[in-house]
Amino acid sequence: MRAVIIDAPGNMRVGSLPDPTPKPDELVIRVGACGICGTDLHIVDGDSPLVCYPIVPGHEFAGEVVEVGRNVPPGIGTRDMKVTAGTRVAVEPNLYCGHCELCRTGHENLCLNYAALGVTVDGALAEYVAVPAAKAYILPEHLSFREAALIEPISCAVHGMHRLDPKSGDTFLIVGAGTMGLLLVQLALRGGASKVAVVDLNTQRLQLAEKLGADSIQTDINKLLEDEPLGFDCVIDGTGVAPAIEGAFAAVKRGGKLLVFGVAPAEARISLSPFRIYNDEITVLGSMAVLYSFGPAINLLSSGIIDTEVMLTAALPLEDFPRALSMVRRGEGVKTQILPNG
Ligand SMILES: [Zn+2]
Ligand SMILES: [Zn+2]
Questions:
Q1: Mean pLDDT of 192-198
Q2: Active-site residue 21, yes or no?
Q3: Which H or E element spans position 130?
Q4: Looking at residue 135, what is its pLDDT?
Q5: CB atoms within 10 A of CB 10
Q6: Residue 39 annotated in active site
Q7: What is the whole-number distance in angstroms between the Cα of residue 319 and the centre of ligand 1?
Q8: pLDDT tens, 281-295?
Q9: pLDDT by residue (tens digit) across 48-86?
């Protein structure tokens, strides 16, 4: 099969690999669509310590089952739906060990033996990918593979909202209008926000935020604070950029919450006032990947709550992976996807 292969940091190619065969508890999926995100940039650049090279990246995907391992039970996710060749699925890419202390206490996303499709084992930027059947979710019929490949990033946003746990009527500020910021805008609006403001330097993306229902958009956070001098109840950083996170912290209302959602480089540092955290009772939260949020993400997508027309931009063949990657790097479009089987 054809696959994107990252042999080592900075060294990527589209080459040939043997077709995967399913282990007893696995499915082999013919990949319909696979999204590219910042994690893939980190894998190519070599600034993610968790990656096992050589690796086939790709963790945001959906496709069609072509082979079923011999120990896979008849229903996945549901009791009565049989998984056979032709079943359409999306796959949660995080592979929890189930044995460690964190897995056993309901924090599977923080598993001490971290593994993930497209990061530590071969992922879906290939014609085929082998996945544990327990990670596959049967898709509602009306969702296309391109739409369903959004389930993984939506489920990260859902987990972020679960962590933030906002109250109805809260005001929101979302810093960064990339794919994740735009998803969070939609979830905040649906979750009872009284106001959703968005700041980004990219005015095209700000316009998309407005199209999705954001109440105010600005390239300068201070302009947003002119209308909300006390700050916002819920502030979410979707950039992972240290000065932006410091700006986000400054925009939290007394008694409010900051969710650090964007992925900062591991060595990055921010400067926060502990006096302000104490005196203003600021809650600072993190949100890492997906936790019991894949099913809710499917429901949100299936109900039409996520505007897939805004979210889905370029779709390119596997051979164009380098071009797709540079589009993501430049912040061009919203979600860029690869269609490995055309
Ligand atoms: Zn991703
Ligand atoms: Zn574990």
A1: 97
A2: no
A3: strand 128-132
A4: 94
A5: 9
A6: yes
A7: 20
A8: 999 999 999 999 999
A9: 888 999 999 999 999 999 999 999 987 776 666 788 999
Mutual angle of helices 294-302 and 151-164, in 10-degree steps:
110
Distance, CA of 165 to CA of 169 (rounded, Å): 12
Which ligand sits closest to the CA of 152? 1
Average pLDDT, the chain: 96
293, 155 Cβ separation under 8 angstroms: yes
**pLDDT score recorded for residue 49:** 84
- Choosing from 21, 39, 84, 120, the catalytic residue is 39
pLDDT digits (tens, 9 = 90+) for 254-307: 999 999 999 998 899 999 999 999 999 999 999 999 999 999 999 999 999 999
Residue count of the chain: 342
Q: Which ligand is nearest to the CA of 123?
A: 1
Nearest to 153 by CA among 191, 182, 192: 182
- CA-wise closest residue to 234 among 180, 190, 168: 168
Q: How many degrees, rounded to 5, is the angle at CA 101 between CA 100 and CA 102?
A: 95
Within 10 A of 301 (CB to CB), how many other CB atoms are there? Answer: 22
- Cα–Cα separations (whole angstroms), residue 156 to 17, 47, 95, 295, 308: 30, 21, 15, 11, 16
Does the pTM exceed 0.85?
yes
89-116 in b/e form (b: 16+ CB < 10 A) is bbbbbbbbeeebeebeeeebbbbeebeb
**Residues less than 5 Å from ion ligand 2, measured at CB:** 97, 100, 103, 111
